[in-house]
Amino acid sequence: MSAGMTLGSTLFHSSALARAVTSSKKRKVIVITFGGGARDQETFAPEGQENIPHLIRELIPQSTFFTQVVNRGILGHYVATASIATGVYETINNFASIAPEHPTVFEYFRKDLKRPATDAWVVAPSNGFNRIGASSHRSYGSDLGAGVILPKHLLSAAISGRNSINFESLLRDNYETPLYTPNLAGNSLQIRQLEEVLKLSLDDFMSHALMLSSPDELSVFIARRLMRQLAPSLLWITLHDIDIAHAGAYSLYIEAIRRTDRLCADVWKAVQSDPEYAGKTTLFILPDFGRDSDDDSSGNGFQHHRTGDALSRTTWMMALGASVREGVVFDRPAESTDLLPTLGAMLGFSPALAHGKPIPELS
Amino acid sequence: MLPSDLKPKQFSGYPPQAKKLVTDYLETLRRLPLSFLPSLLREAIEYDFKFPVERKTLERELSKLDSLSDAKIKEWFKEFQQIRLSPALEHSDWVNAPAQFVEQLSAHLWTTHQMDAFRKAALDYGDRLRAAAPPELPALPRLWITIIGQGVATHDAPLFRKLRPHGAYFSRVKPENGLNVLLDAIAARAKAHPSAYGHWYIDGGQNADQHPSLTCVSYGGLETARAVLMAKMRTEIEKPGMGPEALRTFLGQIRPADLGLGETGDAVLDRFQVKLLTEGSGTQVFSTTFAQWAAREASRRAQPLTLLVRFAPRQRQRPMNELLSGSQAQAELDPAGSLIDADIGAYYNWLNQQRLPGAEQSSFLAWFENHNEALAIGPSMARGTGSTTAATLAELLAWMS
Q1: Rounded distance between C-alpha atoms, residue A99 and residue A234, angstroms
Q2: Which fold has domain B143-317+330-400?
Q3: Tell me: the pLDDT tens digits for B285-295?
Q4: Nearest by CB: B320 against A178, A209, A295
Q5: Which domain holds residue A107?
Q6: A23 occurs within a structural domain
């Protein structure tokens, strides 16, 4: 081994920040979270592996995998996703359209690295998620936030004028109140987003949507379109089909897990085949939290995440791609709020107000 | 207001039997912490509409609390005393609206990161209560039956995977006249051991039989009530300012008459059915969810001696492209998906049975309707075994008893 290589590897390990600064201009990160949570017994436990063939066979061998990621905050999807994005357990109302109180990953990223608005995007389910791109923090805020695309809003605009009852289940915002389908406002803005950002006409969008079976497939279609048109360095995709579990039909929950498994692999394939992303992208995949265990009598098994038991709080995370070791498994606990500081160390921004800690195995 | 300030007149809005119960135990209630008491009142205010087992359980709990010295009360509720409440919660009308208090308390606990502490306090209290006032054993060993797979010709994945380690799997069951055999068996038990709300038949479709000694609930039988409820929900949702929490409050205020129920003269069962539709998630749209949740609630609340749950096919979840294409096809059924739902439902039914007193003496039978597969669990059935012996369902029941 040459002296140069020895010195180089010493520097590599001792100065993650220096590395991040020098390479961050090329570096890209994609984060996929599952709003819905999936339990180990339906995913990574032996009896669940049949539901996630792509994660098990294609992605795990390439990844660093954390088996215990604990969410100690509120187990609601918007607030939990906001907590992952801010590195702080947010306490905002899960069902209200409210911005996170602490700066988001997008604001730190854009402010510290002086990135334009086109370099950070979120593709997410509707309702409260429309505020996830930027916090209400006075030193940050919407001028530094990410662009947010809500595929269900786009759909709403596209089917505007048709009988909304036929689309109840499609436009459903959250599965925790299965029949609640709020009015989705802002159609003109959404259509402009389609045309200006995604370079899609309403007709083109509808013809693509007509080939897809679920809202998450639409989200991934939009994400891939964003990658092609703008190649953002920070892309956050929140999937939500799995949360159909709240309706109590186990077969639909399993079907959604299998679809999510396939969609994660699709995103990774898109990264590999896109010169803007191949070789310089790190992909993170994590559910926002778990679901209730079968053994807790106060819950109803897979259906909800209301008990706050260990299974509903504990999930997993995988990281793969640039600068990530392959085929490594860590069983030590991490917290879901650790993701943001880890991204900060990777990309070279300083998440000063985050409470989580960088994950040393990734930073 | 704090519990120590309670006065009898504050319960004037309670139904008559509930009012008598709480005023009889007023001194006891005054000694309990506010972080706990509304949860107890939420049960007490429903006393007039509770099943006999629930009434006894509540009476036993109050009696036990009444017998505790001040020092013991302090010891039992130490963890609840440490829960910090907000002034808004303290000033809310927790006497007359305990359920709303509990809902707001839940949000407060999540927001203030006290949910884990509250959860531990509740679990510890439950353990103490069970140790001090053990629940009564059932009058006869429980027999629960779950029938799955109605309308399914074949299936790919093996059935009863989660149940098999706990019982004997039979692969050559003679299915002829099986449903009637099982219905006759539970009706005979109900006739031989009369018990108010002790013997249940829950169907995800239409009840195949309405034996008077059985408490019968069905998804099909509530079709009109479900349609009325859905219409009411749509109307509410369209109101300005409506959100999920306001919708939940609205649903909590619905009474049987609002849904066209209440003509059977069984106010207790009517209330139970309304709660299945207004508190259950997905029970309004998926028959498999309805059957599983109805069984779960019957188990938790009525603790049936006999329970037969028959799953029926639920409506198919239409994919996005089909919805967007604008086709107005009739709602189709999804027998294959429903079989998977019912298979896990059978497992959950067994888990719920195991949570009840006398679990070790209980028996459980799961049968794939009109097919040869069944799974039998009970004291006389070897665990984790399989049998290729040809047997009728009547024989299986006899071997289990």
Answers
A1: 19
A2: Alkaline Phosphatase, subunit A (3.40.720)
A3: 999 999 999 99
A4: A209
A5: 19-347
A6: yes
